[in-house]
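STRUCTURE:
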């Protein structure tokens, strides 16, 4: 196997990738952006990509939500949760917080540390970097246009950077969720604790459209763990919905709910069923169990057989 990930080495993304069996010894190709990492999968240059999808403080990673929703089909085969904590690295010559005028990091990292930075370095300016590790590595460049970078604790051991502070995040205990993405192929077997991701674009804009979509899941006892609206790019008011739900496509209630969504909108993109990284939070109601579906299916089949005999 070969993998792309949001690089360079030292990102949280790489940390997530290294939790995958065999990835430590596999070919790992750092990419400059989520789009580039996924493009390498689409082009067949690597087998899979590890990219961030959601953070417990800052929410969805738009670059990932949009990239998997459009273009050649991709499939999510695994998810990884990584606790995130940040440290402040500085360029040579900077010795005190007061010397810092500009901080660089990934936008999601800045959103998680902005409160600390504004409190301890009043007036500091933010310069976006393509990743936390890219920001940190830039500090070693002779013409670095910023003084400090917020990065993962993985970075210091590799580069010999000077650290001025650790644990600078505003919310202790934050978690980022990453997904392992491949070209479409076999769906991982159901484990009994699985998630499914899909993208739905409602074709017809009318009052209650979103509620009707949600009903498809609610009435089949399917719990949603994330729902986000993202602009389609086609104009104001035009959105698609990206959803994660508890359950596997092989479960009748999940298949039925997705089929219901498809009846409402032909524009449903199935993005995969894969093992959940945490135990599912909501028990399956009795009426939505596989047994209840089987019993109801047999009942309908019986009715149809009787009808045919009598006809
Ligand atoms: O820049 C990194 O290190 C990443 O892996 C990206 C990313 C993200 O996109 O959310 C991952 C975890 C942190 O929340 C901050 C940045």
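SEQUENCE:
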């Amino acid at each position: 196997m070969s993998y792309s990930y949001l690089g360079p080495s030292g990102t949280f993304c790489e940390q997530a990738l290294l939790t995958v069996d065999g990835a430590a010894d596999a070919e790992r190709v750092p990419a400059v952006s989520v789009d580039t990492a996924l493009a390498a999968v689409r082009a067949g240059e690597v087998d899979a990509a590890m990219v961030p999808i959601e953070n417990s403080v800052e929410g969805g990673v738009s670059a990932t939500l949009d990239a998997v929703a459009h273009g050649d089909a991709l499939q999510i085969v695994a998810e990884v949760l990584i606790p995130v904590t940040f440290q402040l690295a500085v360029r040579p010559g900077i010795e005190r917080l007061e010397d810092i005028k500009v901080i660089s990091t990934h936008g999601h990292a800045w959103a998680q540390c902005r409160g600390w930075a504004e409190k301890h370095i009043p007036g500091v300016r933010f310069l976006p970097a393509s990743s936390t590790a890219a920001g940190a590595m830039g500090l070693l460049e002779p013409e670095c246009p910023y003084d400090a970078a917020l990065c993962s604790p993985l970075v210091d051991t590799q580069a010999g950077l000077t650290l001025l502070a650790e644990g600078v995040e505003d919310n202790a205990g934050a978690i980022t969720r990453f997904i392992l993405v491949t070209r479409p192929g076999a769906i991982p077997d159901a484990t009994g604790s699985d998630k499914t991701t899909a993208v739905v674009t409602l074709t017809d804009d009318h009052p209650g459209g979103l509620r009707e979509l949600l009903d498809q899941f609610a009435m089949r006892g399917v719990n949603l763990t994330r729902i986000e609206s993202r602009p389609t790019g086609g104009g104001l008011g035009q959105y698609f919905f990206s959803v994660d739900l508890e359950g596997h496509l092989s479960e009748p209630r999940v298949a039925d709910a997705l089929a219901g969504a498809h009846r409402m909108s032909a524009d449903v993109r199935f993005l995969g069923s894969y093992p959940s990284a945490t135990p599912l939070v909501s028990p399956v109601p009795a009426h939505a169990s596989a047994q209840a579906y089987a019993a109801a299916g047999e009942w309908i089949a019986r009715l149809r057989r009787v009808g045919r005999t009598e006809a």
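REMARK: The mean pLDDT is 95.
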